[in-house]
Specification:
Blueprint (H helix, E strand, L loop, with lengths): L3 E9 L2 E6 L5 E4 L2 H22 L8 H7 L5 E6 L1
Antiparallel strand pairs: 1-2, 1-4, 2-3
Length: about 80
């Protein structure tokens, strides 16, 4: 099964934070690409855990959905 996630990337000082707008999963990196790559790994692990335990991945805060629609460092879609 394929999932597509809306991702925002925010710069916080020298660190980039990638956060999904729909579920509460995020990752950090020294570059925006590293943060997204790490988010891909974290999302895959969360989805696998969710499938194996039948527990849903927690929803993200509404703030991230709002940020996705406003000015941020980057918007992306991530398919897992």
């Amino acid at each position: 099964m394929t999932h597509c996630f809306r991702v925002i990337v925010i710069r916080d000082g020298n660190i980039f934070v990638a956060q999904t707008a729909g579920v509460d999963v995020s990752a950090q990196g020294q570059t925006s690409q590293q943060a997204v790559d790490r988010l891909h790994i974290a999302l895959a692990a969360e989805l696998e855990f969710s499938r194996s335990t039948s527990k849903p991945v927690p929803a993200a805060s509404e703030l991230y959905k709002i940020l996705y629609e406003t000015e941020i460092v980057q918007k992306r879609e991530l398919t897992i």
